[in-house]
Amino acid sequence: MLVVSFILAAIGGYLLGSVPFGLVLVRAAGLGDIRQIGSGNIGATNVLRTGRKDLALATLLLDALKAGIALVLARWIAGAAGVPETTAYQIGLVAGAAAFIGHCYPVWLGFKGGKGIATFFGVLFAGPWPLGVIAGVTWLAVATIWRYSSLGSLCAALVAPIAAAVAGFGWEEVAFTGVLGLLIFWRHRSNIMRLRAGTEPRIGDKKEEPPVATAPPATEPSTET
């Protein structure tokens, strides 16, 4: 029965995590398919490229909440079914990790989803929340100093499992944050290439407008013979 509980938690978490809120919200607002805008990503950063900050914020919150809800709900159901607290917590972590994977690789969109940062923070704050605080402070510090959102995300993903190991968390949290951190690095491989090349856009950078072509000045017709 425990094996079945873990499997059901993984399936339920994946299905919840695979709900593409960015795509749904942008379409509902009549702005078309988010996959045809900007980077084509379904996450909050690309939703912001539509010019709708409210939609980007809603996408950010919903992407975080779906992972957190998956963890909390699976843990609560397992506990209500009489599963020991430690095992129920592990079942919750599995559901949260599955929600993260569902966000990055949603079956509904041909397994092409977001990069997982909002979902990562959501599942951390719903589970081992001190690691969520550490990762959040890391992201904020790096993003403030260097103004690279992607670099902040990568550093947060790197720091979380290290902090879990150093602070004496259990093997569950170390493995949990380690696996999700590796997936975040994999999903950000194009950002890593741009960071190395110095072409990654910074927070607050404005997109350069193409130069406006002007017609050459008109010339008077020649009267010379």
Would you write up a description of this structure?
It comes from Terricaulis silvestris. Probably interacts with PlsX. It catalyses: an acyl phosphate + sn-glycerol 3-phosphate = a 1-acyl-sn-glycero-3-phosphate + phosphate. Its EC number is 2.3.1.275. It holds the Pfam family G3P_acyltransf. This protein is mostly helical. The protein folds into 2 domains: 1-115, no CATH class; 128-203, no CATH class. The protein contains 10 helices and no strands. Helix 6 runs antiparallel to helix 7 (129-146) and helix 7 (129-146) packs antiparallel against helix 8 (149-166). The longest helix is centred in the first third of the chain and has 28 residues, at 53-80. It is globular, with a radius of gyration of 22 Å. The protein starts with a helix and ends in a 28-residue tail after the last helix. 44% of the residues are buried.
Structure at a glance:
The chain crosses the membrane at residues 6-26, 55-77, 89-108, 120-146, 158-186. This protein has 2 domains: 1-115, no CATH class; 128-203, no CATH class.
